[in-house]
Amino acid sequence: MIILVILSAAFGFLLLHMYDETKRIEINTHTVLLKKPLQQSLRILHLSDMHFAGPSQTLERFFDRLSGQEFDFIFLTGDIMDCVSGIPACVANLKKLKSKTGIHAVLGNHDYFDYTFLDAIIHNFPGQKQPRTLQKTDLLVDALLRNGIHLMRNENKRIHYGPDELWLYGLDDATTGHANIRKTLDPFNPRHTNFLLTHTIDVFLDLGNDEIDLSFSGHSHGGQICLPFLGPILTHTILGRKYAEGIKRMKGAVCCVSRGIGAGRWIPFRLLCRPEAIILTVEGKKH
Ligand SMILES: [Fe+2]
């Protein structure tokens, strides 16, 4: 009986700790070097998997922390909302951010489907069908566009930034079948400096070598629940746990994979996998 009480207390304490971990958002900084030249270094804020579901003091405080800084670029890589009731808080918080080139975003699976508790559990296992309930994606799209956010749905744009010319490719969500790589990469020139925004890094399976210089993605949540010494239990990437988070190299590209900021409203737990925002300094190859 005493053992049962001790085990129950330990489990309760663990759940509390895991819930608390979702509120402790880190701001991680990295510097990466591209193979191509840049006349100036770029400071980029990468936010992913915010999973806005309504007003959130945690997210409000987090955005307040970032509001005093100005970035060259801000990229959002999907799962912007968890449900439509998160849209007003999402927009209000994004308005706090400052970027010289605005905010560019792509959508993720939670922006297309409204997950029930059961969906959220089942979806953690490979090969499962999408949830039955469609998200009201149009409401999010309208809100983002009305507030000046550059939502990229299988499209690209050339950006003249100071002395540099960059090409930004925004791929719609591949995990729900909305990605069209051919359309997104048209026109495409591998000699240009090419940046890719995608919800999942798995799209690299359909890309060639040395096509993309720098990519930004999320979706994996870093595994969200990690075990000591073993790492993540599930990663949401078919590329393997190595690609669940961090700065990686893939087919000649530097890949910035975020653990994400949110955790989803049905599984509000993280273990050994704190939520994160990434501030990336990008340097070009020196002549
Ligand atoms: Fe997510």
Structure report:
With 287 residues, the chain is of the alpha/beta class. The chain has a single domain, classed as Purple Acid Phosphatase, chain A, domain 2. 22% of the residues lie in helices and 26% in strands. The protein has seven helices and 16 strands. It has helices at 2-21, 57-66, 87-94, 109-112, 117-122, 137-146, 181-184; strands at residues 26-33, 42-47, 70-71, 73-77, 98-99, 103-106, 150-151, 155-161, 164-170, 193-197, 214-217, 226-227, 231-232, 246-250, 253-257, 276-283. The termini are far apart. The model has no long low-confidence stretch (mean pLDDT 95). Bound molecules: fe (ii) ion (FE2). Fe (ii) ion (FE2) is lined by residues 49, 51, 79, 108, 110, 219, 221, 260.
Order of helices and strands: HEEHEEHEEHHHEEEHEEEEEEE
Q: How far is it from the N-terminal to the C-terminal residue, by CA?
A: 71 Å
From the helix content, strand content and strand pairing, which structural class follows? alpha/beta
- The total strand number stands at 16
Strands ordered across the widest β-sheet: 1-16-2-4-6-7
Q: State the share of residues found in helices, binned by percent.
A: 10-25%
CATH class membership? Alpha Beta
Q: Cα-atom Rg, whole angstroms?
A: 19 Å
Query: How many distinct folded domains?
Result: 1
Tell me the fraction of residues in β-strands, as a range. Answer: 25-35%
Describe the largest sheet: 6 strands, mixed
User: What oligomeric state do the depicted chains represent?
Assistant: single chain
Specify the number of helices: 7
Mean model confidence by pLDDT: 95
- Give every kind of bound small molecule, once each: fe (ii) ion
Q: What is the 3D form? A: globular
